[in-house]
Amino acid sequence: MFLLGKGIPEHITNLPERVLKTPFGQMLRPQIDASMRSITQAEVPQQNRPAAANAANTSNGSLNTSLSSHPHLTVKVPTLEHGSQRPITYAKVPPLDKLMAKLGDASKQTDLAALKSFVEKRSEDPKIALPNLSDVARTFQSDILKLPVELQFAAVDLLRCSMIDPRVSGYFAEEQQPRTVPVLIKHVLNLKECPHNLRLVTLHLACNVFASPLYVKELMESEDSTLSTFIDLITSSLLDASHPTTRVAAASLAFNLAVANYRVRREQGQEGLSEGEQVELAASLLEAVSDEKNEDAAKAVLTAFGYLVYCSDPNGELADVCEAMDAKHTLRKMKVSEGMANEISSLL
User: Where is the composition biased (Low complexity) (predicted)?
Assistant: First the structure.
């Protein structure tokens, strides 16, 4: 339970600073504190994320028997019940010669040239031999990060195009530390001023790793900071008021994570995301949707939030935070995607 009688748990107080500075973030602390002052419970040990074994290898149709009587299953939510749970990916390949030209002299780098050749030939032969992915990974973790920041997006976009191949994303799923995709995400997060195009293609790259069931499985089972890194990218990108495309891509990544976790929940009776990670993701999605005017972004955020809460523990920390942030009221007062918002609010 969230209500431990000891104030706000660390993973709430440690929500990304940008979220806490927003109106919902400022509202979160006093509301939760007020709800807890009269409650006293014994302290319980911190729980590790449960192992989400074989999450990506089970079928959509299976249902864990422990959840067969969940109250959400009596609520009509066609968006979630009948909606596609296929990961959102970005497979479009731009004109590669133009993309490479943007890299200048860096386009002559052996591993980038090999990756370009692979992406080109894959459209004709999906079983084309892979480039040396170990060398590609090394190049992206070192040489690419040394390029002028305004050129880096072209290299990341090339990797994004290759990642749609499950063999490529499968390789990067089993990479030893440091892992290439989290390294690139952390690079974006650490930039004082990240160019819009670099952030956008990094979001698209992160979405494309979900093309590999193996990557999803490894991600849901990870005990390192990889999931938190993905969530930090989502959180910071959802707050980009100037670029709806960034918010849509961030919501798409949130959808992929939420669906992966939902499948583990429904099929195994476990959670792929820890409670703290779910709370952080929910807080950022609620903050984003409260002011969203773009229809595509609103729908993407709502669907991600819906799968995050669907069949979740009604007595868990996620439910507590949704109540503290008045999530039901937030959804019901939306002026865009009203039907979907009301539908999702029925779960709260």
Answer: 51-69
The pair of structure tokens assigned to 307 is 């799968």
Whether 259 and 87 have beta carbons less than 8 Å apart is answered as yes
Cβ-Cβ contacts under 8 Å for 240 (sequence gap 6 or more): 196, 199, 246, 247, 250
User: What is the token pair recorded at 264?
Assistant: 């583990």
Q: How does pLDDT run across 139-181, given as a tens digit for each residue?
A: 999 999 999 999 999 999 999 999 999 999 999 999 988 999 9
Our measurement of the distance from residue 312's CA atom to the centroid of its chain's CA atoms, rounded to an integer in Å, reads 18
Q: For residue 57, is it left (φ>0), alpha (ψ between -120 and 50) or beta?
A: alpha
Single out the residue of 341, 243, 343 nearest to residue 300, CA to CA.
341
197: pLDDT strictly greater than 70: yes
Over its C-alpha atoms, the chain yields an Rg (Å, rounded) of: 21
For 74-346, give the CATH class: mainly alpha
Comparing CA positions, the residue from 7, 137, 331 lying closest to residue 322 is: 331
Strands (DSSP E) along the chain, which ranges? none
More confidently predicted of 43 and 269: 269
Contact indicator for 77, 344 with CB cutoff of 8 Å: yes
Q: Report the candidate in 330, 286, 288, 326 with the shortest Cα–Cα distance to residue 30.
A: 326
- The SS3 assignment for 47 reads coil
Residue 133 token pair: 């992915």
- The one-character DSSP state at 225 is S
Q: What is the torsional sign of CA 250, 256, 258, 261?
A: negative
User: Over 80: is that where the pLDDT of 48 sits?
Assistant: no
3-state SS, residue 269:
coil
Give residue 210's pLDDT.
95
**Omega into 178 within 30° of 0, i.e. cis?**
yes
Q: What angle do CA 212, 151, 216 make, to 5 degrees?
A: 15
Total-model pTM: 0.84
Phi, psi angles (nearest 5°) of residue 282: -60, -45
The whole-number pLDDT of residue 54 equals: 43
Q: Specify the length of the chain in residues.
A: 348
